[in-house]
Amino acid sequence: MNSILTALQEGRLFELPDNDKTSALQFLAHVIAAFPQVPADVDIFEHVMKREESFNTALGKGWACPHARVSFEEDLMCAIGWSPEGIAYNAPDGKPVMLVIMYVISDTQRNHYLREISVLARALETYPSFEKLWDVKNLDDIRNYLLDLVDTAKESSGPDTRTRMIRLQAKAAPEALTFHDLSNLIVEPVTLIAIPKMKPVALTQNQSLLEWLDSTSDLIARLEAEGVYQNGGWRVIRRGVVAYQGGRMAYDCIAVRLNPLK
Fold first, then answer.
1. Are 190 and 236 in contact (CB under 8 A)?
2. Which of 47, 89, 126, 151 is deepest in the core (most CB within 10 A)?
3. What is the pLDDT of residues 49-100, one digit of tens each?
4. Which residues are registered as beta bridge partners of 187?
5. Alpha helices in the chain (DSSP H)
6. What residue ranges define each of the domains in the chain, with the CATH number in brackets?
């Protein structure tokens, strides 16, 4: 379960902004698309949804492991999403999904992925405190839950030094962390108001994002046609749209970008 440890170490654990399955998968897919390793022309969300249409990726006990199989070469990697309310995922045990681990699998990493999923499935069967997942209150609780689960999975091979180090890093002062990772990922809610024959109005608390949105020209057309817009550092993802009288439209979106390390 090294991919999960790496995701925790590199800040790839997020609270999902929506408890709708498609929206949750889209959110994680666009987070992964922001990884520097992922080519700009790879549509992670499309890959994930094609796999999801073939079979349901819920494991039961509040877990799901959707994945995208891609042609570019990269180590097995994942992003982790937590839903406080739970997602209706049609899981085999009928329980809502609280944890979504989204994997990206290159052709050379398929066996690695199958081994990791096998270890995870066994861990869920033997982990004595799996029901704690329903009681967690925040991301720190989820992080500790996952580290405990990994410890359980690795007991047969002896103490895991890396797991202990990640626990120590979590207790360190923020300024002591020096990972060049996704802990500097910015996720901002934004509402876009489209009025016929007028420039769209962006509503956001982020000044940099506001200036970037005001400088775009084909934003609404791209969001309407493709559901996503990217031209520079920000990626804007449409989550929903409401139509009003007079042809006015309100687009509920999230904007994602990596904040350059200084």
1. yes
2. 89
3. 998 998 899 998 999 999 999 988 888 989 999 999 999 999 999 999 999 9
4. 256
5. 2-9, 21-33, 44-54, 110-126, 139-154, 161-171, 207-214, 219-226
6. 2-176 (3.40.930.10), 184-258 (no CATH)
